Amino acid sequence: MSAHRYFDDVNGFGSLFTELCRLGVKKLLNIISGEVQSYWEQPFAQPYFDNSTKREVTATVGQSALLHCRVRNLGDRAVSWIRKRDLHILTVGILTYTNDQRFQSLHTEGSDEWTLRITSPQPRDSGTYECQVSTEPKISQAFRLNVVVSKAKILGNSELFIKSGSDINLTCVALQSPAPPSFIYWYKGGRVVNYSQRGGISVLTERQTKTSKLVIARAMPSDSGNYTCSPSSSDSASVVVHVINGEQPAAMQHGNSSANSVLINNRSFSHRGHGPLDRWLAYVGGSKNLILSLASSGLCWLVKSISPFGGPGR
Questions:
Q1: How many CB atoms lie within 10 A of CB 217?
Q2: Closest residue by Cα to residue 154 from 190, 193, 184
């Protein structure tokens, strides 16, 4: 074999090997590309929502509201939050697309969770919000937000009359509060109730039931005043307490009783109904808040003189 032919054969084999390598690499790349494309076309590889998150959220006015959206297999797609009522885009990714800076998207790198935070929500913010993924076609998940005004309520009437030496017992409940308040404070006037000022003052707060009980034992006239219950996330409620000193009051309004009640000569007379006696008792003990101090002999004269159903001469 001549040297020229040898080198021609070598070069031929080299060119063939080079071509085979080129074709092999191209085919390999096509296979890989096809597999990648096939992978993304499979249903489990497409972005989808994790339905374990809470879809209806209740928040209190002034307390931040959080809507949690979890998207699996997001890839290079973007997550947006949209307000349903006006189709306003609030956020895209972690960027805010509204002038209302109360809206913010929270996301931790590497996590599947995209949270819409609304700072200081108001009742007008109630409605439907959509978590949307930029697939083709787009997929979205709706969340319902309810913003409520939580209010405190002190059980009983707004004005109470307590006999000196008796206990003042006030119970406060936080209504329409989606979560237990972190604290419930009691105020007398504009100051927090001072437990060290005198003995016999106790407060029992049960966070799970959202209630707080204030008990002042052996009440004195100095305990009279305006008492306010103020939960951490609720509007406050107040009651006026009058502590009656001296002789036994003849008529006293009892805030925790649904019956009309009058205390005369240390005896309590109660009656339920809608007859003339009830209207008279309401007139004396309820609407007029009269405190009577009578002897037994003067009772009949009093009834005739102030009763709207009969007076002197009838």
A1: 14
A2: 184
Residue 279, judged by CB atoms within 10 A of its CB (0-12, 13-18, 19+), counts as middle
Tokens matching residue 45: 């590889």
SS3 195: coil
Cα–Cα distance measured from residue 8 to residue 12, given in angstroms and rounded to the nearest whole number: 6
pLDDT, tens only, 100-119: 999 999 999 999 999 999 99
Task: Tell me which residue of 265, 261, 231 sits closest to 247, measured CA to CA.
Answer: 265
Give the Cα separation of 178 and 59 in Å (integer). Answer: 6
Query: pLDDT digits over 252-297, tens only?
Result: 544 433 333 333 333 333 344 444 444 444 444 443 333 333 333 3
Count of beta carbons in the 10 Å neighbourhood of residue 276: 12
- The answer to whether 92 and 71 have CB atoms below 8 angstroms apart is no
pTM: 0.56
**Which of 297, 249, 292, 258 lies closest to 278 in space, CA to CA?**
258
**Phi–psi pair at 260, nearest 5 degrees:** -75, 130
Closest by CA to 167, choosing from 218, 220, 212, 228, is 218
Write the single-letter amino acid at 151: K
- Residues present in the chain in total: 314
Report d(CA 261, CA 248) in Å as an integer.
15
First to last CA, the chain: 154
